[in-house]
Amino acid sequence: MITDELVVERHHPRVRWRKFATRFFQYFILSIIVVIVFVPIVILVFGALKTRGEYLSHPYTVPIPPRWENITLILGNASYSFWPMMRNSVFVMLIVTALVVTVCSLAAFVFARMQFRGKGLAFNLFTLGLMFPINVAILPVYFVLRQIDLIDSLWGVIVVQTAFLLSGNIMILRGFFTAIPAELQEAAYIDGCTVVDFFLRILLPLARPALSTVAALTMIISWNDLLVPLVVLNNDKLWTLPLGTMQFQGQYGQDLSLVSAFVALSALPTIIFYIFAERQIVSGLTAGAIKG
Is residue 2 over pLDDT 60? Predict the structure, then answer.
């Protein structure tokens, strides 16, 4: 009897209209967000595949036929320095990612699985880093780097990016490490595991989704960082791609199609990487949010 009433209510015109309105509103909001996100990217790609005249006369049309001259010119002309800047960006990104994953996993393990006096205070000190973004602290950071002779060095960029990425990633990994049952740690100790063995052989393999998330987010942030290389690097041979893109835009700003091609090529590695790592990023953040 109750089931029949539910079926009748479900097919009531008012209920169906309410479901339709809710679904329509959801798709309407999602469509607006998709347009806001993708329209600039599409215009950038279209502009990269046009000549300068086509870009100025018809900036929003589909490039038919596509002009690949801008792409081949940037990749083949050594004066544009695309490949050296790509090499510098890859070097900085890999070193920063390795340091962040290593330091954050060690610190998160200490805060999540070990007991010592002042643990809460020490963790709060680490999380204080979230309240001081690099934009606020860039001037004192510059003075410190100058005193230790790391200005105009890729290692200066690496040190600053690593330092400002620690706080948030320690919080992500600490939540994941805390969610692993304490009984597993006790059983490992009974079987003869030391603290190092438990960390390397049991905890890290179990935390692989969270580690992948931290690594992916770090790589994307490091690759797209403009402020730190802009402040630290003066030698154009050390420029990373975001800094080189800004300088390229200033030098060839009159040729918008060429600038669009350079920007599209600079962003292409992170887009490809995100497409492959998107599932790991979402699953790792979701797991941390639920278990933490």
Answer: no
